[in-house]
Specification:
single chain; Cytidine Deaminase, domain 2; alpha/beta
Length: 166
């Protein structure tokens, strides 16, 4: 399995952005974080997101905070579906109730763990339209560390511009 460290651009259809934001907003209205996955195919240094995957998940509240949990059987099902469809996972996107940042829990329980994958965190339970300028964007390196990544890597498919400019 090759890694995604050479990916220099991620093309995301507006529908994937909007549908993912709507799911996370609905979870937020229930007081929960929500998580969605961007999947598609790599073409040289460009990754084309084609599909929004919304895994079965449940919200958890503890004294330390809240999180969305995807259980093992669902992760196995997603892995099999991706294998059958010849699609690959490039990013996980989830909401936080307040500020967008990558928490220790986000670091330790990531779903997108291939080198070069992304993790985006959307603030305020996704109550506003998606904006890369407001999201915290991280990328996993070969040492397994999540490091901040520039929004300039992301583009809206078919619109020719950076999503952060919207």
């Amino acid at each position: 399995m090759t890694d995604f460290s050479e990916i220099q651009a991620v093309m995301v259809p507006r529908e994937v952005l909007d549908d993912g934001q709507a799911f996370m907003r609905a979870a937020g209205l229930r007081g929960n974080e929500g998580i969605v996955l961007w999947v598609g195919q790599k073409d040289g240094p460009t990754f084309h997101v084609t599909t929004l995957a919304i895994p079965e998940q449940r919200g958890i509240r503890t004294a330390d905070g809240i999180c969305a949990v995807i259980e093992g059987p669902e992760l196995a099902r997603l892995n099999m579906e991706l294998h059958k469809s010849k699609l690959q996972l490039i990013a996980q996107v989830h909401s936080h109730p307040g500020a967008a940042y990558h928490s220790t829990t986000d670091d330790e329980f990531a779903v997108a763990t291939r080198i070069g994958c992304f993790s985006l965190v959307v603030p305020d339970f996704a109550t506003r339209p998606f904006s890369f300028a407001e999201a915290a964007i991280y990328r996993i390196n070969s040492a397994g560390q999540w490091l901040e990544a520039p929004s300039s890597l992301f583009h809206i498919a078919g619109e020719g511009g950076y999503y952060g400019a919207c």
